[in-house]
Input
Amino acid sequence: MGTNGHNGLGTNLTYTKFLFVLPYQEDAPTLLKIRTAGSNICRGFFNDYDAEGSREGQPQETIQFLQADGTLEGREGISAARFVAQVSANYRPRLDEVMCELKRRIAGSADLMVLEGAERATRYTSAEMHNYAYKSAQPRVSGRTARNAIIMPMSKAAAWWEKSALERHAYFYPHQDSSGCPAKGHAKAAEPGISTIFRKLYHNPDGYQRPNEFDFITYFESTDENLPVFERICASLRDQTQNPEWKYVTEGPEWRGRRVLRW
Ligand code: HEM
Output
């Protein structure tokens, strides 16, 4: 563990950090300080706001600014963040630099919470699953069209990780549940989202089942009109008769907001 890219559990392809900014106050000087910090940390990064199509595999360092509207009162943890930046790079220490710079620039005005993830090759995806769930997947479109961003961290129970990889595999495909009833499984339960919701899955770069950390971060982008589809697929995934996998899932706090060109 600890080396860039390899931890014995899978290979990290690229790294990402979600930087959640929680201002102490929402007055003009505080907001100015945060906005200035945002324009400083984005130097050298490609801004994903206007990203179109797929840039898979390209060694680009990217940033996406997000912002929550309305009142955040009563929310806790990352759900209470007014501003979020997602930075991605192939070289992990690059993201630490950005995080430290942001932290330094907003010190005294806002708290910073950080979630870290890594992209990895798919693990349960056969050629057929690829055709089904990835080939026709919604490509990334500009934040002017797909305005909404949703970040959902989650973990899986020890009983999940105790299963063999082959056994876990079945949960993503139509299968029979423990009582022999047919279950759609993850991909089929989420089918309406395939062509409508842009999705990204990040793994904990340092492995799974780590105390006080999440196993996964899921990230979604959607147009306003497709948000109801997103709610529907979440409901289907949470429905354990359709998707028995969710028995093993503990969802973390979720963050919702808008993609913006800058804070
Ligand atoms: C939009 C439609 C969706 C489709 C087609 C879809 C499909 C898939 C597929 C095929 C995998 C397996 C990836 C692999 O081979 O490693 C997967 C993994 C995963 N998906 Fe989805 N998904 C969708 C939506 C969602 C949503 C809404 C959530 C969260 C609420 C979610 C959470 C996850 C997680 C956490 C994993 C990793 C599970 C693990 O490795 O144990 N997915 N998804």
Q: What stands out?
A: The first helix runs from residue 28 to 41. The longest strand covers residues 14-23. The radius of gyration is 19 Å. Confidence is low (pLDDT under 50) at residues 1-8.
